[in-house]
Every structure is written in structure tokens, then in C-alpha cells.
Amino acid sequence: MPFLLTFGDSNTHGTPPIVTRGDYHRFDAATRWPTRAHAALGPGWELAEAGLPGRTAQFADPVMGDHMNGQWGLKIALQSHGPVDVMTLMLGTNDVKTRFGASPDMVTAGIAGLLDIALGQEMQTRHGGFKVLLICPPPVQELGPIASEFIGSAAKSQALAPLYAALAAARGIGFLNAGQVIKTSPVDGIHYDKLAHAALADAVAGAIKAMI
Questions:
Q1: Strand residue runs (E) in the chain
Q2: What average pLDDT is seen over the chain?
Q3: What is the C-alpha separation between 155 and 132, in angstroms, rounded?
Q4: Model pTM score
Q5: Is the link from the previous residue into 83 a cis peptide, with omega within 30 of 0?
Q6: Alpha carbon distances (Å) from 27 to 11, 12, 118
Q7: pLDDT value of residue 22
Q8: Which InterPro entries does the UniProt record give (predicted)?
Q9: CATH superfamily, domain at 3-15+26-211
Q10: Domain residue ranges in the chain
């Protein structure tokens, strides 16, 4: 029975666009893109959702905590689930927050570090080999109730897709530019609305089918 692991941040977790800071909400399983993609893959697939709001590819967050560093989270996820057949990786939105001061190249380097973990001998041997689909998130819009955390982030996030694509090609893995499929919500400029989740789910399922 094939196993799908979706690893990412709040947009993998299913956080809807933020209206009021501090309120916690999550889209239901009928709405979230990982569960919808899982259903679109057809019967027989298993799914583990590993989306953590605030997660970065490489940074310990001084506000949200050290556990936001995706390097630790990825190791935990890969040692907790499986055997994994396909893993999606979609991170980078939080890495462009103002407080990290990361350039597009630095953000991409963080993704490269995660791929080193996922594609390394230890994890590949543990799971009997698995494929990776790297997803570049759509660009950030600097608006809404959390815009102050993303000053200067729009331009950085717009530069990520070609860097991610080149990285995916170099590592021989799948790639999906989510920015060609969806846009972030104008409510907060970071998260996806219900229609975007549906569209992304279809794109991810199609990319996975093409890989296998």
C-alpha cells in the first residue's frame, strides 16, 4: 500500500487565511490539499500530514521556538511514519520573514539541506527508497494582519521558483511551482483559501502520478 508524507508549514497543515492574529483555525479534511490530493490518488494510499504552522526550512524561530527548524521536524517525521513511498516538501514561506534576513539563495540552501536529509542513505534505506516532490510555494503578498512580519518578503519569494526548479533538477526529483497554480489569499497574503487548496490538491496529485 503506497504511503504519502506531506511535509510543510501552515499551508500544509491547513491554516485558513488569518483574519485575527492569535486565533487558531484549520480547514477540515474535505478542504485541505493533502487530504484532497490523497483522495485523488485513488484507493490504497496511506497519508501522513506533517504540516506545522511557522515551520522554516532551516531557522530556529526566536518567537515561535527552536522546533520551527524543519531539519529536526523532517527527521522526526521520517522516523515516525512509513515506509514512505512519496514525500512532498513545501517550505520557504516562513523563511522569507523579515526577522530571518534570508536571501532567496539562502532560503534555497535550506531546502537543499532538507533534501540532503530525505535523499541521504539513512532515510532512503530506512524506507526502501522513496520519491520526493519539491513544491515551491506561491509568492507572498505583503498585506493583511501579519504583513509586518513579511516586510520585503514579496520580492524574495518571487525569486524562489527558478532556484527551486534548478535544485530539483540537480537532485533528480519532482518539482511543482505552486505559484503557477494558485495565489495566496488577499486576506493575509500568506495562506490559501478553499479554492486554492482544491486546485493545489489536483496539481499535486497529477505531479505524483507523473512521478510514479
A1: 3-8, 46-51, 86-90, 131-136, 174-177
A2: 97
A3: 27
A4: 0.97
A5: yes
A6: 10, 10, 28
A7: 87
A8: SGNH_hydro, SGNH_hydro_sf
A9: SGNH hydrolase (3.40.50.1110)
A10: 3-15+26-211
